[in-house]
Every structure is written in structure tokens, then in C-alpha cells.
Amino acid sequence: MKGLLIRLPQVKAQPEGRPRACPRCSSPVLQAWGRARKPVRDLRTREVIAHRYRCPACRHCLRHYPEGVDRRDQSQRAVALAALLWALGLSTRATAVLLEGLEVALSATTVWRDVPVLLWEAKGRLEKRRAPCLGLDGFWATLKGKGAGLVVAVETDEGLPIALLQVDEEDPRALAPLLRRLG
To answer: Is the Cα dihedral 80, 86, 92, 97 positive or negative?
Structure first.
């Protein structure tokens, strides 16, 4: 039985704290240089505020984004969800259509670009901590041309999927050890 633990990134409306130093010259002194509204493609958040800073030493200007947002148009949560849907076997076009139904307008090309970026960022960062589960839901899906039973575990805080487990239909007792890791 295979298991995959997924924690979708949180998206906050404003950044917390300040950058510690200039990314160019490492000067610890940064001047507040205003705020900018940034539209974001996300499941829940439509706009965030990015704080701008200027380094007096090298005159470099930078933006400090809130958690879950970077310079891309889509949030890290939308990128992770697109990669998850693609990993489940949906094509990039089907993933884009499904996300459009969730009011996250991404093109198939954007999904195609985001999947390798997310895989590179997540390489070697599997979380090993426990997570509370509110509920489980099972369904049947076709993965790479073969039928498979899948179970989705949902986190209590936000109701977001955190685990996707492939279940052997003929051995339901094998699911218990995988669920113990989550709870």
C-alpha cells in the first residue's frame, strides 16, 4: 500500500515581520518603501498586500510577500493543488478546467510549468509530523490506466486535504497503520 502526505501551503493576507537583510549586499538596514496590492489566483484569497523595502547601501528595492505568496500570479496553495491533480493522473488541460471550476483560472501551460517547479522545491521536504484528521473519504479512480482505491484524509483546521492513500480493496486492515501516522 502506498501513501502520500500532502500539506497545502497557507496563504496570508499580509507579511509578518520584516526581511533581515538586503538580498544583494546583506546590509541589515532596510527602509520601508510603501505597500503594494497584489492580485493572487487562489482558492480563498483574491488579493494580498506586499510590503516594499529599499536598501540605502546599494539602492536595491525589494518586495516582502506574505506566507504562501511569491512573485508568481498564483499562490503556492494553487500550485500545490495543481501538482496534486496532475499527479493523480489528470492532464494539464483537465487540471486547468477543474481549477477553473474552483474559480482559480490557470492555463494548461501554467500548470505544465508549475509542476516541475513544485517537485524541485518539495524534493526531500516530506513532513514527518503528525496531523489531526477530521474525516476520511474513499473513492475509486483510474491511475495510469489501472483502477485503484484511494482515501483522502482532511485536516481539522481548514478542511484541506493532507493525505492521499492508495488502498488495496482486498486488505482493509492495511489502512490502519497508515492512518496512525497521521493521527
So the answer is: negative
Range of the domain at 156: 129-182
What phi and psi values does residue 15 have, to the nearest 5 degrees?
A: -70, 150
The dihedrals phi and psi of 136, each to the nearest 5 degrees, come to -125, 145
Pairing of strands 31-39, 47-54: antiparallel
Query: Model pTM?
Result: 0.62
**Is residue 92, in this structure, part of any structural domain at all?**
yes
Judgement on whether residues 133 and 177 belong to the same structural domain of the protein = yes
What is the tens place of the pLDDT at every residue in 50-78? 999 999 999 999 999 999 999 989 998 89
User: Could you tell me the CA-to-CA distances from 96 to 82, 144, 183 in Å, in that order?
Assistant: 8, 19, 32
> Could you give the number of structural domains in the chain?
2
Q: Are residues 118 and 133 in the same domain?
A: no
C-alpha cell at 83: 501538482
